[in-house]
Amino acid sequence: xxxxxxxxxxxxxxxxxxxxxxxxxxxxxxxxxxxxxxxxxxxxxxxxxxxxxxxxxxxxxxxxxxxxxxxxxxxxxxxxxxxxxxxxxxxxxxxxxxxxxxxxxxxxxxxxxxxxxxxxxxxxxxxxxxxxxxxxxxxxxxxxxxxxxxxxxxxxxxxxxxxxxxxxxxxxxxxxxxxxxxxxxxxxxxxxxxxxxxxxxxxxxxxxxxxxxxxxxxxxxxxxxxxxxxxxxxxxxxxxxxxxxxxxxxxxxxxxxxxxxxxxxxxxxxxxxxxxxxxxxxxxxxxxxxxxxxxxxxxxxxxxxxxxxxxxxxxxxxxxxxxxxxxxxxxxxxxxxxxxxxxxxxxxxxxxxxxxxxxxxxxxxxxxxxxxxxxxxxxxxxxxxxxxxxxxxxxxxxxxxxxxxxxxxxxxxxxxxxxxxxxxxxxxxxxxxxxxxxxxxxxxxxxxxxxxxxxxxxxxxxxxxxxxxxxxxxxxxxxxxxxxxxxxxxxxxxxxxxxxxxxxxxxxxxxxxxx
Length: 515
Hints:
Number of helices: 15
CATH class of the largest domain: Alpha Beta
Oligomer: single chain
Largest sheet: 13 strands, mixed
CATH architecture of the largest domain: 3-Layer(aba) Sandwich
Structural class: alpha+beta
Low-confidence stretches: 1-44, 113-125
Strand content: 25-35%
Shape: elongated
């Protein structure tokens, strides 16, 4: 018998409040179950069980980390939610770890208010709950509970830490418990540290089954998706992992349209478009231009040099009047260049163009009311990579008799800083590992770097949260000034769309940094 998930027979998309209640009901189901080491294993000899667990431990592999959350294993003991340290055999270390009384009380109160639970101790005797949270604090675990960021696992079989399940689409990565508009197609993906029988359910109906360490299911269909992982012990399948659902919902086109920023420029902003910043082939001329936004009637204003994203393959300065308008109204002369795109123009074409555009800015921005002693460099996504590389690898600015000392500070928004992982970046940076390493800002970190502000979003693209954390940590360890900002409730795309909002967290952090 497997646990009953509330979404199994519900084909409708629950609202966020409902999701929270279902998540709490599910965690109660497992947290309040007993955790002794007897029960399900009684049908399997002790020797077979130990041999199987030892084999699973040997075969278990570490998985690439998205980096947004850590995995914290907890249980309810004597009225507290306990996160102990564990011995190699899986037994908790007495009196170790952290205990949160308040969370347990909240769970018990919810149960008393009528949340119906269907428990089967014989089935749940070995299950532990794994919470996905940034830190092991009561507030972070509370957020994991209320947002469904957890899964349950039969830990006596094999340590499931590193298990990942969620949806990936053009907006970002959405983990279990989250919901996302299904724009065109989304990929439902699951990764386990050990090969297992993986079963994917949509609204309680099995839609895919495979054996291995990963499952990928591309779909246009909305619904609640969850995955189960099973391991074979003594010729029988045993429950290993149950995920919380991830929800694909139909896009609200009116809502999406409302998020699109205005392309108009305010009356107090002057825009000069299409300024050539370097010579080159005639075919490249449109990409060797930049736009300048300046506050009318002001001089000696600080300057924000912004590099657009688009995976080094798409994008253009013409898409960013809302960015230019927003920061110019805050008192900054804003410069937005275009640059040549891959794969037609592979690396280092992009960074060479960016360096040329920056050199033009240093030499000419005074004519547009800018202060050449206060130039900040910013970029989003691929632009985050280029802004960091420009500021850390001296050779690109040295070609113009400049250096990173000409940069007052760097705002790297949801960028890529290590290009050595996998083959994703080959079409732009080539397949040679050393070449990709040379193009990675992470490997140019130094104490004399300009100050950095690094951001990442809750629903950012895969590995970007980890890259942001690793990059910031490397800067700090080197002795450079670096601050890390987490942007909750935003995805990789909405981080830029929300720039125009008065209360935008990214803008607030940027203005504080540049003050």
